[in-house]
Amino acid sequence: MSPLLTLHHLRKSFGERQLFDIDLLNIAAGTAYVLTGLNGAGKSTLLRVLGGLESAEAEAAAFAGEAVRFSPYPQAMRESVIYVHQHPVMFSTSVAANIAYGLVARGVPRQRIDALVDDAMAWAGVAHLRDSRTQTLSGGEKQRIALARAKVLQPRLLLLDEPTSNLDGAAREQVLALIPSLTASGASVIMACHDRDLIALRGVHRLKLSGGRIQVRAQRSRVA
Ligand SMILES: Nc1ncnc2c1ncn2[C@@H]1O[C@H](COP(=O)(O)OP(=O)(O)OP(=O)(O)O)[C@@H](O)[C@H]1O
Ligand SMILES: [Mg+2]
């Protein structure tokens, strides 16, 4: 698989405290990763750094085959990397308007937006919620809508912060079932989660953040 993102010597500190110092982070195209680690290990911060929401230093970086300067965060990544918050924030309009939001901001023509939003809602299994207000949605519905809102922008890298941590049973399975189709369409996915919630999807690679370093773990082969 070709590399999508390579970062050498990625360092993040808050004041005097160094949170991580990662020798090498290699993310392949069209590949899913789970990022585990204890509470406070820095999983969310690392995802926010990769998504350009938090600054960090890297010695060398390459994205989609081009060498880039990582700081300030490169424009090429801003257009193609999306961070999905653990508790997605929704505007208090309809579900469809929430999913359309990023496309409207990009100036995509209205007719094209409608078609893309319809496709994304069908993909996430939320077409029946099209005109619902977002205040009444369940946690699982919100997560799937947040994934649809991200997917519609055709990212090359999706950063999901504990997408299933507040879900159980069918809601959790519905969210997890969307991941393989993201990687099949060429996107890479990094999901933060806890060891106890470890997602056992086929072919998902494991990264563990511990003591400010990344350990690459063996792949899981079991299907969820
Ligand atoms: N803006 C900030 N300023 C100072 N310290 C911060 C800031 N953001 C995070 N931290 C600290 O960095 C550490 C890592 O936090 P982070 O949220 O990345 O951990 P996490 O691995 O996602 O934890 P959890 O499993 O609880 O979600 C924590 O000790 C946190 O207090
Ligand atoms: Mg976190």
Automatic annotation (TrEMBL):
Listed name of the protein: Tungstate transport system ATP-binding protein
Record carries keyword Transport: yes
Organism of provenance: Noviherbaspirillum humi
Listed PANTHER family: SPERMIDINE/PUTRESCINE IMPORT ATP-BINDING PROTEIN POTA, SPERMIDINE_PUTRESCINE IMPORT ATP-BINDING PROTEIN POTA
Keyword Repeat in annotation: no
InterPro entries for this protein: AAA+_ATPase, ABC_SmlMolc_Importer, ABC_transporter-like_ATP-bd, ABC_transpr_CbiO/EcfA_su, P-loop_NTPase
Gene3D superfamilies hit by this protein: P-loop containing nucleotide triphosphate hydrolases (3.40.50.300)
A Gene Ontology term for the protein's cellular component: membrane
UniProt KW keywords: ATP-binding, Cell membrane, Membrane, Nucleotide-binding, Transport
GO MF annotation list: ATP binding; ATP hydrolysis activity
Highest taxon of the lineage: Bacteria
Domain ABC transporter: 5-224
GO biological process, one term: transmembrane transport
